[in-house]
Amino acid sequence: MLNKTAKNLIAQGNALFSERATLDSLWQEQAENFYPQRADFITSRYVGKDIAANLASSYPLIIARSFTDAISTFLRPKGQQWFKIITDDYEELDNDSRKWLEKATITMRRAMYDKESGFDKATKQVDADYAIFGQGVLEIKPNFKKVTIQHKCYHLRDCAWYENGDGLIDTIFIKRKPTALELKATFKDKIHAEVEKMLSGDNPNPHGIVNCYKIVIPNDDIQPTPNGLKHQKSYTAIYLDIDNQHILEEVAVDEFGYIIPRFQQVSGSQYAFSPATIAALPDARLIQAMSFTLLEAGQKAVNPPLIATQDAILNTPSLEGGAINYVDYAYDERLGEALRPMTLDKSGLSFGMELLQNKEQTIAQAFYLDKLNLPPIGGNMTATETTARISEYIRNALPLFQPLETEYNSAMCSLIFSVLARLGTFDPNVPDGLKNADGRGKEIKFVFENPLIEAEGKDKTQKFLEVKAALAGLLRRGPCWSVLSLSLSC
């Protein structure tokens, strides 16, 4: 059972971060090779630092970026309504109920893409964290000032969490570093006396950092209040001043408030891994070493080192255009040129380039890019060949994106709907068709549209056309097939 005292919460948070400290080293190396913008897990980065200075090739970064873009393209394709609110009995709903759901879908999309919601920015960051590190942390909360929602992505370095017995994340600790001025603006007179001194003491430091924890824990794990009652809501959100062991705020909340999609988990750990970067990391290291070696070899090939005869050259040799190099007049050129390029064996360059291209192809395969591109269709291909290619494409891509629809898209949309409903965003006049017999609303679900589902639809359409073409051929054999032809046409 979790103890709510500040001291115990700090100890629990510190233990949680200590348990996963070695993950920071792995994430740091993955970031340095594939996502240098995030390469500050175990190092501090100053503004203006060349974050890719350790790289000799940008190819792993480009491939990782392409995979990240593919995730957002498949999950949230631009320019279309990629999600739809439904119920289990959607096909049996009356017209008013369907119209209410359609209106709610439009309202929800408008709230998500509001310019102040931060949806695009936050989800793009979560996509990248998911692709490279195997998980991302997205917070969705109401913005009471604007009566809308806010989306925020947190750095994995600052997050640690627990799973419950069902394997679901229900406890999270997030490190925060607000200034004393920020704490005062947010929590007013609830701040600790030491923070007040930072604002108005003898040596004020209003922009000084105060280490804090942002915590969400389930109420089942919280000790009863002094009067023996528990909160009626599912979770408690706590903001804790670590430096002064002081709880700034404790609020009961309806939802966990965080979506943490996880790529691939192994038993015994609440943290996931990205199979893409795990497979590509050895080749990424090798590509950087090979690129550096080939760059050196290429430089020597076009600007080879020189051989100079000792004492024959009177000045420091210069290779600039129009430069003059003086040779001792007594030197006999029959003994060899006084200054000449060194003869180098360049045969290894082509082999090195071939090997480098092979490793680049391996990295692209590790990031599933060979499975994500729709195969070329058309030309002289038969209908059977077209169907086979689309079917193969779907079989390769579905295992990658189907789990994401459940753990990322569906979970995110469900939380957004819940927050917007509590804010009173939707039409309060809910039709009776969307209510159960006891008067409570029916369970809301989501269906999604994306390029993969479209391809699957094309696959089914192609199969139907094949059957129709076959039946058309049979029709020419006799009139006995006319009834079947009519039913298919209808």
Write the layout of secondary structure elements.
Layout: H1 6-19, H2 21-34, H3 59-75, E1 83-86, H4 95-112, H5 119-133, E2 137-143, E3 148-154, E4 159-163, E5 169-176, H6 180-187, H7 193-200, E6 212-218, E7 235-241, E8 246-253, E9 258-259, E10 264-265, E11 272-273, H8 275-302, E12 306-308, E13 339-341, H9 347-366, H10 369-372, H11 383-422, E14 445-448, H12 451-475, H13 482-489
Antiparallel strand pairs: 1-14, 2-3, 2-9, 4-5, 5-6, 6-7, 7-8, 10-11, 12-13
Helix pairs in contact: 3-5, 6-7, 8-9, 11-12
Q: What general form does the structure show?
A: flat
Largest sheet: 5 strands, antiparallel
- Structural class label: alpha+beta
Instruction: State the separation between the terminal residues, measured CA to CA.
Output: 64 Å
Overall pLDDT confidence: 84
Defining traits:
14% strand; 490 residues; disordered C terminus; 5-stranded antiparallel sheet; alpha+beta; 3-stranded antiparallel sheet
Written overview of the protein:
- The protein has 490 residues and is α+β, with helices and mostly antiparallel strands.
- Among the domains are: 6-54 and 137-260, no CATH class; 281-372, no CATH class.
- Helices cover 45% and strands 14% of the residues.
- The chain is built from 13 helices and 14 strands.
- The protein has a five-stranded antiparallel sheet with strand order 4-5-6-7-8, with helices on one face. Strands 3-2-9 form a three-stranded antiparallel sheet.
- A hairpin with a 6-residue loop joins strand 10 and strand 11 (272-273).
- Helix 6 (180-187) packs across helix 7 and helix 11 packs across helix 12.
- It is flat and about 110 Å long.
- It starts with 5 loop residues before the first helix and ends with a helix.
